[in-house]
Amino acid sequence: MSSTTMSESVRAGRPFHVRAWPVAIGVLRFAGVVITTFLGLLAVTFFIGRVIPVDPVLAVLGDRAPASAIERTREAMGLNLPIYQQFFIYVRQALAGDFGTSVLTTHPVMSDIARVFPATIELATLGTLIGTSLGIPLGVLAAVKRGTLLDQLVRIIGLIGYSVPIFWLGLLALLVFYAKLGWVAYPGRIGIAFEYSFTPITGLYLIDALWQGEWEVAVDVFRHIILPAALLGYFSMAYISRMTRSFMLNELGQEYIVAARAKGLSEARIIWFHALRNAAVPLVTVIALSYATLLEGSVLTETVFSWPGLGLYITNSLQNADMNAVLGGTIIIGSTFIGINLLSDLLYRTLDPRTRA
Amino acid sequence: MIMQRLPFLSALAVGTALSVLMAAGTPAMAKTPADTLVEGFAIDDIISMDPAESFELTAGEVIGNIYSQLVRLDLSDTSKVVGDLAASWTVSDDGLTYTFKLKPGLTFASGNPITAEDFAWSFERMVKLDKSPAFLLNQFGLTGDNVTEKVKALDPSTLTMTVDQPYAPSFVLNVMAASPISAIDKKLVLPHVKAIPVDATNKYDNDFGNGWLKTNFAGSGPFKLREWRANEAVVLERNDRFYGDKAKLLRVVYRHMKESAGQRLALEAGDIDVARNLEPGDLAAVARKEGLNVTSAAKGTVYYISFNQKNPNLAKPEVREALKYLINYDAIGATLIKGIGEIHQTFLPKGQLGALDVNPYKLDVAKAKELLAKAGLTDGFSVTMDVRNTQPVTGIAEAFQQTASQAGIKISILPGDGKQTLTKYRARNHDIYIGQWGSDYWDPNSNAETFTANPNNADDATFKTLAWRNAWDVPDLTAKTKAALLEKDGAKRAAIYQELQQAVLDSSPFALIFQQTEVAGLRGNVNGFKLGPTFDTNFVAPVSKN
């Protein structure tokens, strides 16, 4: 209905400002959400940083510093100021784009993130690709074969993905595919033999190696990434297949499916071109959410596989009360979340004509 | 219907394709290069590569391999030191002035000559930067105001240092062997020195090159620092200008790996040559496996449980003694610390001057109950215990909780991250704490000072030792600890430390449990890898690979 109204208004040639208002309000609302989210992020990170019972001075000086040095550093870091002043300084610096220097790595936080984030993006992207390419067909299959042994099998695969700790599954996978079968490589992103001869460009090693025509490096990088990515992909698949199944069941019960069958369309055409096309609309959000979760939530996978990514970086920084690094990391994650949400929103609008108004 | 089967078939096809791709790479390709030693090592405690700043165990090991000192521990008898860059040294009759003569023709990795002036500046920057290791020199009376007067280069090969009291020469020399007191290439660092404004927190107008040296290198050890990427890797390369025996391998890579199980798998597969953080189960598996070896060395780190004297129950002498009888040392030794430690109930680690090797306490619930009754606590009491969530301390705490409950003492364990529990401990807000103490330098004073000295037990004291953290007010022992520092006669000095250890055994709020044994798993083709008595003596220069 709404899309008809919109096109009618366009055809009617209403003045521009009448149409511009809703757009402007939409943009303003979006900007409002972004700003509020960022301020919320800043406040939450700051106060969590102050609530956790860890002395930030320990991060700067290490565990064995004498008391005099501790006091001096506390003053230098402004930790003796009243908490509202500390918060004000924190927000002012963050708004100026100054995330400072990480005390742990001694590098500017942004250059640290530029180094570790591509590792996580590469891992999460491959994980999502694996999860999606397996999860959707499995979910469709489970919906079509509802109640059969196959459906149960998909359910069990999904259940394992939900309930088994990734840490344990990671070690088990290492034992089988790395230690016993020798199919994959470990630890880290690249073999020691190439680490000092290969120069990455984008930080996405797989793409960089292929781009430079370094086939041996590409194979080595692939052998490093495939196991952690497959593991993340498995968890993503568990989620996507369950959601696909439920969306598909919903679609298959719709009247237009009955109508399509009555028209004599083949079952395959009905499933893949009609039902899945409509189920794809909410699936976009599911996949985007799953991707965002992998981007920030692969800490344990990164630990098990010694993968130098963002999750590991933020966890280490948080444990060491390295607040500059935690803030920078949080802002990046927050921006990525907002970005992915925006993207899925746009895709949603493209796929679902009803939302275009 | 054919289309319906496709998803399953395509999944199968994708799976097969992945398997083929994975199998395509030859596993041998990932093995470590013949000229490189790769160690799997948890290196997330490193905060800096500047010797005057870093004092963490892992960084200490790296600095020990890339920098040189005036003197070093004699690895064949660790109660003595031998010359490193110093050819000889003398102590003046009044015991206050030390004169070091440097060996001739020494150079830094940069090619610059090593002179006494480099040492004088290294001492000056260490004291003036006032980072964690500065206390090593502060304890000789060296301060920012007097260091340029007290430490001087008489000529390019002669350095003198004047201390404020006639300390035992063994104490001064043992401290000088610590890795932070390294020769730093002044000529190389000077262009990187940054000016900073003088204010309340900065007493001096420059950073003495600290900003640059955090991630760079200006030393003269058998290896050079090529790169340190925090939480990722430390890469060393052979220093071909090294004055002593050249390193056998071209490169050493310390690769950050946190997990014992992961290290074991990578060691078995040959992707690392040395695994440095193996837990007892993995260590036993490595020891059994053909083609792999294990090595170990007793380290200067002791583990203890301490009782805060601010808690009225724990302050009773009978309770302190009873608690020492409620630890099942035998069971802990046989299981929880098997291979990674040895039961050791005195505060000086074996191998240090005056170390007492006696273990009088055993689990004795009846005796503990008797002591508790004497303290008027027949029914026991409740108390909390702060425990880092790592092994073996968690296991030991749980074992202690179980045995203590047999005498009616209910311990509730408060698990926390290392820095959380330490923050609470430093503020004296704990009841019971389980911790470790590694000697800051290889001299009995390091441990004696922390376990038996507490010059001011007030909350705002500036000298915060372990005795202070547990509010143990002991003026007599504090005085005795100080006297031991000035005792020139080695045998008499050792005797004082033995008395101090006995006092801690009998009446202190410290139950010493074990001395750490450092272990490493090695590939069969690794030769000459030997762990030293301290973390900064884990040298990699003699290591070679077949």
Brief descriptors of the model:
heterodimer; A: 357 residues; mainly alpha; MetI-like fold; 2 domains; 77% helix; globular; B: 546 residues; eleven-stranded mixed β-sheet; four-stranded antiparallel β-sheet
Structure report:
The complex is a heterodimer of chains A (357) and B (546). Chain A has helices at residues 2-11, 16-51, 56-61, 67-76, 83-95, 109-144, 149-163, 166-180, 192-195, 205-211, 215-252, 255-262, 267-297, 299-304, 310-319, 323-351. Chain A has 357 residues and is mostly helical. Chain A folds into 2 domains: 22-95, no CATH class; 116-309, MetI-like (MetI-like fold, Orthogonal Bundle). In chain A, helix 6 (109-144) packs antiparallel against helix 7. The termini of chain A are close together. In chain A, 41% of the residues are buried. By secondary structure, chain B is α+β, with helices and mostly antiparallel strands. In chain B, 33% of the residues lie in helices and 21% in strands. Chain B has helices at residues 2-24, 57-66, 116-129, 135-138, 147-150, 169-176, 186-189, 210-213, 260-269, 280-288, 317-324, 329-336, 365-374, 393-405, 418-426, 444-452, 466-469, 475-486, 490-507, and strands at 36-41, 71-73, 81-83, 86-91, 97-102, 151-155, 158-162, 223-229, 233-238, 251-256, 274-275, 292-307, 341-343, 382-388, 410-416, 432-438, 510-523, 526-527, 544-545. In chain B, strands 1, 8, 9, 10, 11, 12, 13, 14, 15, 16 and 17 form an 11-stranded mixed sheet that branches. In chain B, helix 9 packs parallel to helix 10 (280-288) and helix 16 runs antiparallel to helix 18. In chain B, 52% of the residues are buried. Mean pLDDT of chain B is 90; it is low at 1-30. Chains A and B meet through helix 3, helix 4, helix 6, helix 8 and helix 11 of A and helix 1, strand 1, strand 10, helix 9 and helix 15 of B.
